[in-house]
Design brief:
5 helices; alpha/beta; five-stranded mixed beta sheet; Double Stranded RNA Binding Domain
């Protein structure tokens, strides 16, 4: 079995080296085509900017991948009632929360990835921006035990942890 693996690896390496050696000199001298730069994402500017988290009253949460924004809105309502109001328009907000998340779906992928240490089941990272500055940033992951990946709620757990971190930052300032 080991020999078969070594032979396969050697064959793959030699075929890639052979392909690299068969390139014509003209192909090697031509410059690669220019790649277009991806368009910069535009973050909505808050209507009433604040200088610190302590001054934050109204927060706009930008739409995020896999509905993380919806889970965050629910967690803000649950954990910080009356302290932070979630608004529906960026121009009504003191600050804007932007972010990204990654979710690996499927039990087999989640379990094998967790056992091999390749990835978390769910992760998310957010930042709170005011006019010209970043007020706060955090990240969270669903880091339950390996059998925990069989349960539902990866996005909810990530949102819960992010809002908990936000609440902790408010209490410290």
């Amino acid at each position: 079995m080991k020999r078969l693996f070594h032979v396969t690896v050697l064959l793959c390496m030699s075929s890639s080296m052979g392909a690299a050696q068969t390139k014509t000199p003209e192909a090697a001298q031509t410059p690669p085509p220019a790649q277009a730069t991806p368009p910069a994402t535009q973050v909505p500017v808050a209507g009433h900017p604040v200088a610190s988290l302590k001054e934050l009253k109204n927060l706009y949460i930008e739409p995020m991948a896999n509905d993380l924004d919806q889970y965050l809105k629910a967690e803000f309502t649950k954990q910080l009632p009356g302290r932070v109001t979630i608004v529906m328009k960026a121009d009504e907000a003191d600050a804007v929360m932007t972010g990204t998340g990654e979710w690996h779906k499927g039990t087999a992928q989640a379990v094998t990835g967790r056992l091999l240490g390749l990835h978390d089941t769910a992760t998310g990272a957010v930042q709170v921006l005011s006019k010209d500055s970043m007020l706060w940033a955090s990240e969270a992951g669903d880091r339950s035990l390996w059998w925990g990946v069989l349960k539902r709620g990866g996005q909810r757990k990530v949102a819960d942890r992010i809002v908990h971190n936000f609440k902790h930052a408010l209490d410290q300032k």
